[in-house]
Amino acid sequence: MINPKVEDILNAQINKEFYSAYLYLAMSAYFDEIGLKGFSNWTKVQAKEEMDHGMILFDYVIERDGNVDLRQIEAPVKNFNDPLQVFEMIYEHEKSVTESIECVATLSEDECDMATRHFINWYISEQVEEEANVLDVIKKIKMFGTEYPILYHIDKELMGREYKQHNYSE
Predict the structure, then answer these.
(1) Complete domains list, the chain, with CATH
(2) Rounded to a whole number, what is the distance in angstroms from the first to the last CA of the chain?
(3) Does the reported pTM lie above 0.85?
(4) What is the average per-residue pLDDT within 127-151?
(5) Mean pLDDT value of segment 106-128
(6) CB of 51 closer than 8 Å to CB of 17
(7) Position 149 pLDDT exceeds 90
(8) How far is Cα 133 from Cα 41, in angstroms, rounded to an integer?
């Protein structure tokens, strides 16, 4: 059976992952509204990955004979100014998710729940990748600019991102 404190923090993390999906869907809608279909695709793929992350946690809590406590999901931000601002928001959001995952790791270790501590390593690695992917887009926008012809080329590149279902792997 899972430690109650660990169960609680994992349930909070499930909520954060599902909120992340909502946030990325709001961003995707914004990009669709301004005609950047590639940017929209990138954030839509990200939303699907966040749902995967939440479901992996969901299944883990159940596997450990815990109780999943689905909490209300906060409404996402929906006012955006431009693609650079959105990706800077994404970067800040991913940094906060990384911090949250690190708290899960710390609490798991403090509570001597080594199974969860081992499990959460996958998320730690995933967050390194998430932050790097976002920074890559930010650097391109900053390097090349936000003029429409430039955004068009970045948009075409982001259209190539494909969803691959995330599965927990040790």
Answers:
(1) 4-158 (1.20.1260.10)
(2) 20
(3) yes
(4) 94
(5) 97
(6) yes
(7) no
(8) 14
Residue located via tokens 């081992």: 118
Rounded to the nearest 5 degrees, what angle is found at the Cα of 23, between the Cα atoms of 33 and 6? 170
The pair of structure tokens assigned to 67 is: 């109780």
Angle at 41 (CA atoms; ends 88, 132), nearest 5 degrees: 40
Q: What's the gap between Cα 157 and its chain centre?
A: 20
Main-chain dihedrals φ then ψ at residue 60, nearest 5 degrees: -65, -45
Burial of 25 (0-12, 13-18, 19+ CB in 10 A): buried
Q: Which two tokens stand for residue 6?
A: 């660990």
pLDDT over threshold 70, residue 170: no
Which residues lie closer than 8 Å to 87 by C-beta, 6 or more apart?
Answer: 134, 137, 138, 141
| CB of 148 closer than 8 Å to CB of 156 | no
Alpha-helical (H) ranges within 64-113 are 83-110
**pLDDT 10s digits, 47-92:** 999 999 999 999 999 999 999 999 999 999 999 999 999 999 999 9
**Residue 41, pLDDT score:** 98
Which amino acid is present at 170? E
Q: Which two tokens stand for residue 45?
A: 């793929």
CB count in 10 Å sphere of residue 68: 14
Give ∠ CA 97-164-140 in degrees, rounded to 5. Answer: 65
